[in-house]
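Table S2 (text version). Query chain:
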Amino acid sequence: MPAGIFNSTYYGKDYRAGAALLRARRPYLFKNAATGLGLCIFTVGVYAYTIRAVGQDEFSDVRVPDAPAAPAAPESKQ
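Corresponding structure-token output:
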């Protein structure tokens, strides 16, 4: 029994993908690339929409105090 990490004929002695593995992956190359591109476009679109939607908030209805409240003095226990 051969020893090593990959005991498959898909990988060579130097652990690189062999010709058989490249042939097996070839039919899925375009579909996987298109799916990955679609996911990236969707992610960037959601991010851009979120940033744009949050950027339109004016916060004019939020009441901001003039000065910060002074911290309460600690009570001494005797």
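Notes on Table S2: The chain is about 45% helix and 0% strand. Residues 19-55 form the longest helix (37 residues).
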